[in-house]
């Protein structure tokens, strides 16, 4: 697996049109910081948009379980990403529009992402992406 830094290669993210529109609306509603807005707008500018059926299986999107390694803290964590209306802590699901969701959406297994999480600049590697039924 090759490791790419997202900032160095913003063109490699792949999104469904629905996710693309969801992120645009999230930005429009000012739900992100200015810095996040800049990064997200750059990513969206270069994002490849595909139909859901054409989205590669190793790309982070809604209804995926994602294993990541935070190289800044040396922790491995598992997230289950769902739409914002379905995210529930008691179900251990995370909104795709959460900080970690926005950091990883459209990226694939092996990607290394530099993103601010919990107020700290973090280097996160996507180890595994699993589609949920």
From TrEMBL:
Domain Transcription elongation factor GreA/GreB C-terminal: 56-130
GO MF entries: DNA binding; RNA polymerase binding; translation elongation factor activity
Protein keywords: Elongation factor, Protein biosynthesis
GO BP, one annotated term: DNA-templated transcription elongation
Leader sequence residues: none
InterPro entries registered for this protein in UniProt: GreA/GreB_C_sf, Tscrpt_elong_fac_GreA/B_C, Tscrpt_elong_fac_GreA/B_fam
The keyword Protein biosynthesis belongs to this UniProt entry's keyword annotation: yes
Name of the protein described by the UniProt record: Transcription elongation factor GreAB
Source organism of the structure: Pelobium manganitolerans
Source lineage: Bacteria, Pseudomonadati, Bacteroidota, Sphingobacteriia, Sphingobacteriales
């Amino acid at each position: 697996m090759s490791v790419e830094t997202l900032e160095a290669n913003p063109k490699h993210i792949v999104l469904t049109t629905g996710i693309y529109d969801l992120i645009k609306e999230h930005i429009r509603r000012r739900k992100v910081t200015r810095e996040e807005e800049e990064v997200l707008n750059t990513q969206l500018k270069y994002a490849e948009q595909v139909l859901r059926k054409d989205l590669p299986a190793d790309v982070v999107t809604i209804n995926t379980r994602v294993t990541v390694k935070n190289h800044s803290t040396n922790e491995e964590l598992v997230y289950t990403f769902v739409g914002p209306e379905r995210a529930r802590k008691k179900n251990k699901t995370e909104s795709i529009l959460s900080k970690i969701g926005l950091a990883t959406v459209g990226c694939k297994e092996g990607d290394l992402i530099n993103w601010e999480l919990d107020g700290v600049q973090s280097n996160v590697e996507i180890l595994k992406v699993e589609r949920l039924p």
